[in-house]
Design a protein that fits this description.
CATH class: Alpha Beta
CATH architecture: 2-Layer Sandwich
Distance between the termini: 15 Å
Shape: globular
Number of helices: 4
Oligomer: single chain
Low-confidence stretches: 69-76, 164-168
Helix content: 25-40%
Structural class: alpha+beta
Number of strands: 5
Mean pLDDT: 85
Length: about 170
């Protein structure tokens, strides 16, 4: 999934020589990402990167959390499987709340209203998407989220060719 900041404002640092130089706000975003499995035991995290004005991450939603023995009280049922939208909404809410507290800007919007998602269907796609996320700072000059982009992103062309049907939320 990809989540952009409101109006693509560069809030989380800058890219210098292909390397992301994160600021305190980026550290908060990273912390909120790392904390997702504590809030959603059925969620596993994979590759993740904070960019100046967006984040990319792979979220794995499992039927049952690995090694979980707890059950919900009174129902006997296991942990409920969250929807991706619930996980993204919580991540956006929690990170915005923490950043606004630090910035003393309560209620100020941090994130663009929607997000982009893509279902990963095979190991080849997973490997390509992981590589893209890890290498994203090096591709900043051609990243479509970069207002000063100077090129065409090969990965975006590949992603657009693999989409079976529109499943993206909040397209601009």
């Amino acid at each position: 999934m990809t989540i952009c900041t409101k109006d693509r404002q560069q809030r989380f640092g800058e890219i210098v020589n292909g390397e992301m130089r994160r600021n305190d706000l980026a550290a908060i975003v990273q912390s909120c990402w790392n904390d997702l499995p504590n809030h959603y035991p059925n969620v596993g995290l994979d590759a993740f990167v904070v960019m100046p004005n967006h984040v990319h991450g792979i979220i794995i939603i499992m039927d049952d959390p690995v090694g979980a023995t707890s059950r919900r009280p009174h129902t006997g049922a296991g942990f409920p499987r969250p929807y991706l939208g619930n996980v993204v909404a919580y991540f956006k809410y929690e990170s915005a709340k923490r950043i606004n507290k630090l910035s003393t800007t309560p209620g100020a919007p941090l994130w663009h209203r929607g997000y982009y998602d893509h279902i990963i269907r095979d190991d080849r796609s997973l490997d390509q998407i992981r590589d893209y996320i890890i290498e994203n700072p090096q591709r900043w000059s051609s990243d479509k989220q970069n207002r000063d982009s100077t090129g065409d992103d090969e990965f975006d062309r590949w992603m657009n060719s693999t989409i079976d049907k529109p499943t993206r939320k909040g397209q601009e």
